[in-house]
Design goal:
By secondary structure, this protein is of the alpha/beta class. Strand 3, helix 5 and strand 4 form a beta-alpha-beta unit. Helix 1 packs antiparallel against helix 2, helix 2 (39-65) crosses helix 4 (100-107) and helix 2 runs antiparallel to helix 5 (128-134). The protein has helices at residues 2-37, 39-65, 75-83, 100-107, 128-134, 145-158, 186-191, 213-218, 240-264; strands at residues 68-72, 89-93, 112-118, 138-140, 164-168, 197-206, 223-235. The chain is 52% helix and 18% strand.
């Protein structure tokens, strides 16, 4: 029985990877033609297909792998987001899985999302690389602090007062075991130069089976959860430290609540 279960899961994983890759490659080709027409056309195409591919990734995860995704914005936080519908918003989230990016995109649709991402993603990944370059996400080299600072500064200037959602993973990388890593303030400090922003805190909690592609193949189906757990109407450079501490405490408490709930079931 275990053999047939592993075979079924392996087939589901292969189907998920193939379908996802084909969809992204198709959208990448369309974006390539759009670039030839004009940058504005490419911008619209990558925005359209970026949103749809994000939804498809979550749909195929459940259809092929049995993984349930829960994206939650409680009513009180929904009202806050509606109030700031025409403003830039800063989102702070912990980082646990490759799913985090598409989940946050789906969580805040239809607003446009801008990430601070690894520079290595700027080429070689179907659709994703074009989206990052054309929409001018911040592409930083983790091993080059000077380049990272300059890139985030250019990112801030370009998107100043542009009605975007700026997503920062203050840990800087994914947590391998789910425990929160130290929060860093450098990117947030640059984004808040000459402006104050409302901040939303997103808690991401995943089963161990979803943290890497390898564990996804060898583990049973699990649950992925991204939930808005706090907001601060306005933060400035003077309040960054306290805001990060508050965000980390809130996310830690939310994770503890989920673990306690799972233990009692």
């Amino acid at each position: 029985m275990a053999f047939f279960y592993d075979l079924k899961r392996g087939c589901g994983f292969v189907i998920y990877v193939l379908i996802t890759y084909i969809c992204f490659a198709f959208a990448d080709i369309i974006a390539g033609f759009a670039i030839i027409i004009s940058r504005q056309c490419a911008y619209r195409v990558t925005t359209y297909w970026g949103h749809r591919m994000a939804r498809l990734v979550l749909f195929f995860l459940e259809a092929c792998m049995g993984i349930k995704t829960k994206l939650v914005i409680p009513p009180m936080f929904k009202k806050f987001l509606d109030t700031h519908q025409n403003n830039n918003i800063l989102v702070l989230a912990n980082h646990q899985s490759y799913i985090d990016i598409v989940a946050i995109m789906c969580l805040f649709m239809p607003k446009e999302i801008r990430f601070i991402a690894k520079k290595s993603l700027s080429y070689g990944v179907p659709l994703v690389s074009k989206v990052l370059r054309i929409q001018r996400h911040a592409l930083v080299n983790r091993n080059d602090f000077v380049q990272s600072v300059k890139e985030v500064e250019l990112f801030r200037k370009h998107h100043y007062d542009s009605n975007k959602v700026f997503v920062v993973f203050p840990e800087g990388t994914r947590s391998k075991d789910g425990a929160l890593l130290p929060f860093h303030s450098s990117a947030v400090r640059i984004l808040l130069k000459n402006q104050a922003l409302p901040m939303v805190v997103v808690s991401i909690y995943t089963d161990p089976s979803l943290r890497t592609m390898f564990s996804l193949l060898h583990s049973s189906a699990g649950t992925y959860r991204a939930e808005v757990v706090d907001f601060i109407p306005e933060i400035t450079r003077n309040s960054i430290t306290s805001a990060l501490e508050r965000a980390k405490k809130t996310i830690t408490a939310h994770h503890a609540t989920i673990r306690n709930t799972q233990t009692t079931l």
